[in-house]
Amino acid sequence: MTSGYTRTWRTARQLALTPVQANSALARRPYDLRHAGVSMRLNAGVPATQVAEWAGHSVEVLLKIYAKCVDGHDHVWLGMVDRALGD
């Protein structure tokens, strides 16, 4: 049996998304939006301590769940280290 919340979420997806998007996994569950938001903040370079506070997680839990979501930013972090060293 589905809850009223689930039925409302499904209806909202149908109204807000294109038919192709609605038939995809995009925002299939409300939790998917939370996951996307936390991942986006980490990938934007917000410190994990701040993201954890906003998400209501400990840093340990945040990094356990989301560490694999942060990818492809080695050049950013290395640039930050170089600037800190004065290079």
UniProtKB/TrEMBL annotation:
Keyword Ribosomal protein: no
Domain of life, per lineage: Bacteria
Signal sequence, renumbered to the chain: none
BP GO terms, sorted: DNA integration; DNA recombination
Keyword annotations: DNA recombination
One MF annotation (Gene Ontology) recorded for this entry: DNA binding
Keyword Cell division: no
Descriptive protein name: Tyr recombinase domain-containing protein
Provenance organism: Acrocarpospora corrugata
